[in-house]
C-alpha cells in the first residue's frame, strides 16, 4: 500500500489541532546574494521546535482506542521522541521513548519534562531500536516509527501543501534528509502539483545513509558518526518499505555537507536571519551558501526543520564565526 496525495490532505485536517501551519518568510540577504527569491519555511516555530510534530500527530490521532489504551513506544534521536511525547501528553496516552547514548543531554531533558519514560541504551539508534522492540512485545505498545510509516510521511507532507498555498511560484525546495519521511512526504505533495518542482535533499558527509542507498539502488547500512546535524544521524532500515522508494522516485539531487559548512549555516542563520537553528535545521541554508547545489532555481523554499540545539554548542559556533 503506497501513499497518495489524498492521504496528505487527510493528514492536514487531522493534525490541525496540534501542529501549526508555519510561517514562510523571505530571506532577503540570501535572495540578493543568489539573485533569486529564497524563502524559509520555519518549522522551528512548531510547539516542540521541529516539524516532527506533524507526523507524530497524524500517526497517533489515527490509532484505535485499544491501541491508545495500551500505550506507545518509539526510538528517537530527539525531535521525533519529543513530538511523540508532546502528542501523547496532550491525548493522555502512556508513552516510552528509547534513545541511544549519542543523543545530547538537552534533548533527553526536554523529553523527561514532557512526562514520558526515557530509556537510554546502546551506541546507536539501531541498539535503541532492539530495546524498543523488546519493550513493545512485553507490554503490547504500538511502535511509532520516526519516518518509515505512511501516516508519518503524510503528516510531514503537509509542509508541501502549505508551500503550494503560500508560495505558488515555488520551483525548488531544499530539505534536510535523513530517514526520508520529511523529504518523501513533501516531495509527494509538491510533485503531485507540479513535476517540474525540483526536490533537493541535504545530508552531512558523516554517514549519509540515504545518499549511499540511492547510489547503490537498495538500502544500505553505515556506521553512525557524531555530527553537528545530530538529527540527521541514523539509518533508513535495511527493510525500508516506503521512504527509500519515495526518495528514488522524487529526489532530484542530494547535497552532502562538511561539519564546517553546517556550522557556517548555523552562524549565518543567527547573524543574518535572527534564527536559532540546530545543525539539521540549518543544512538547507548551508547548502545554498556552499554553492554545492547544482540547479538552484529562482523561487526557492528552504525547510528549516528544527531549532533544538545544545546552547553550548550553539554559542561556540556563533562566537567562532563572529567578526
Ligand atoms: C528528523 C529530522 C530531520 C530528518 O527527517 P527525516 O524524515 O528523517 O529525513 C531533519 N531535521 C530535523 C530537525 C529532524 O528532527
Structural notes for this entry:
With 323 residues, this protein is an alpha/beta fold. It has 14 helices and 10 strands. It has helices at residues 5-15, 28-33, 52-61, 65-70, 79-91, 105-113, 125-139, 150-166, 181-193, 209-216, 243-250, 259-273, 279-289, 311-320; strands at 24-26, 37-42, 72-75, 95-99, 117-120, 142-143, 172-176, 198-204, 253-257, 299-304. Helix 5 links the parallel strand 3 and strand 4. The radius of gyration is 18 Å and the shape is globular. The model has no long low-confidence stretch (mean pLDDT 95). The structure holds pyridoxal-5'-phosphate (PLP). Pyridoxal-5'-phosphate binds next to helix 9 and helix 13. Pyridoxal-5'-phosphate (PLP) is lined by residues 50, 52, 79, 147, 176-183, 231-232, 278, 280-281, 305-306.
H/I helix tally: 14
**Beta content:** 5-15%
Which structural class best describes the helix and strand composition? alpha/beta
The biggest sheet, with number of strands, parallel, antiparallel or mixed sense and barrel status, is: 6 strands, mixed
**SS elements, strand count:** 10
Give the topology string: H per helix, E per strand: HEHEHHEHEHEHEHEHEHHEHHEH
Categorize the overall geometry: globular
Rg from C-alpha positions?
18 Å
Instruction: Enumerate the strands of the largest sheet in spatial order, edge to edge or round the barrel.
Output: 1-2-10-7-8-9
- Amount of helix: 40-55%
Mean pLDDT reading: 95
Bound molecules: pyridoxal-5'-phosphate
Low-confidence stretches: none
Amino acid at each position: 500500500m503506497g501513499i497518495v496525495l489524498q492521504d496528505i490532505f487527510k493528514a492536514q485536517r487531522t493534525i490541525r489541532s496540534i501542529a501549526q501551519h508555519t510561517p514562510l518568510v523571505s530571506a532577503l540577504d540570501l535572495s540578493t546574494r543568489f539573485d533569486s527569491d529564497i524563502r524559509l519555511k520555519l518549522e522551528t516555530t512548531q510547539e516542540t521546535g521541529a516539524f516532527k510534530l506533524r507526523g507524530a500527530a497524524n500517526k497517533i490521532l489515527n490509532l484505535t482506542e485499544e491501541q491508545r489504551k495500551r500505550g506507545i513506544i518509539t526510538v528517537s534521536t530527539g525531535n521525533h521522541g519529543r513530538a511523540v511525547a508532546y502528542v501523547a501528553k496532550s491525548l493522555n496516552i502512556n508513552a516510552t521513548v528509547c534513545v541511544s547514548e549519542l543523543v545530547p543531554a538537552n534533548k533527553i531533558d526536554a523529553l523527561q519534562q514532557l512526562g514520558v519514560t526515557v530509556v537510554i541504551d546502546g551506541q546507536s539508534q539501531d541498539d535503541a531500536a532492539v530495546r524498543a522492540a523488546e519493550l513493545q512485545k512485553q507490554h503490547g505498545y504500538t511502535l511509532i516509527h520516526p519516518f518509515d510509516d505512511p501516516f508519518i510521511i503524510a503528516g510531514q507532507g503537509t509542509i508541501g501543501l502549505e508551500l503550494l498555498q503560500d508560495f505558488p511560484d515555488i520551483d525548488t525546495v531544499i530539505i534536510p534528509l535523513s530517514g526520508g519521511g520529511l523529504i518523501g512526504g513533501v516531495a509527494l505533495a509538491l510533485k503531485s502539483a507540479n513535476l517540474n518542482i525540483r526536490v533537493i535533499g541535504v545530508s552531512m558527509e558523516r554517514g549519509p545513509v540515504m545518499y549511499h542507498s540511492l547510489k547503490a539502488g537498495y538500502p544500505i547500512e553505515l556506521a553512525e558518526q557524531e555530527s553537528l546535524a545530530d538529527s540527521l544521524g541514523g539509518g533508513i532500515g535495511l527493510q525500508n518499505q516506503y521512504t527509500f522508494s519515495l526518495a528514488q522516485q522524487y529526489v532530484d539531487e542530494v547535497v552532502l555537507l562538511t561539519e564546517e559548512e553546517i556550522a557556517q549555516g548555523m552562524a549565518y542563520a543567527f547573524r543574518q536571519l535572527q534564527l536559532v537553528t540546530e545543525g539539521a535545521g540549518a543544512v538547507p541554508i548551508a547548502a545554498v551558501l556552499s554553492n554545492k547545489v547544482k540547479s538552484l532555481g529562482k523561487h526557492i523554499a528552504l525547510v528549516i526543520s528544527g531549532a533544538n540545539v545544545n546552547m553550548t554548542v550553539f554559542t561556540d559556533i556563533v562566537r567562532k564565526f563572529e567578526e
